[in-house]
Amino acid sequence: MYAVDCTGHCDDCPFTWCSSTPATRPSKAEQRTGWRQEALEELEDLADLYGIDAGRVRL
User: Fold this and answer.
1) What's the sign of the alpha-carbon dihedral 30, 59, 53, 45?
2) Separation between Cα atoms, residue 13 and residue 15, nearest integer Å
3) Rounded to 10 degrees, what is the CA torsion of 23, 27, 28, 34?
4) Collapsing DSSP states into helix, strand and coil, what is residue 14?
5) pLDDT 10s digits, 4-58
């Protein structure tokens, strides 16, 4: 079997990038939560970098 023959519907697919389950998109709420968590982590990193108390940093 070659990659061009792959349809993504076989149960025992030899390709690691292939998934037999359809891709699902996160909900809008999950996207917002993920964005907020990433932003908070970035702010904490910047606060550490510049020597600012992370407790005083808000989003």
Assistant:
1) positive
2) 6
3) -80
4) coil
5) 666 666 667 666 666 656 667 778 888 888 898 998 889 888 888 999 887 776 6
Dihedral angle of Cα 23, 28, 34, 37, to the nearest 10 degrees: -170
| Contact status, residue 15 vs residue 3, Cβ threshold 8 Å | yes
Helices in 1-59 by DSSP H: which ranges? 28-50
Q: What global pTM score does this model have?
A: 0.49
Structure tokens at 59: 């989003």
* 2 token code pair: 């070659």
For the record, the structure tokens of 20 come out as 């037999």
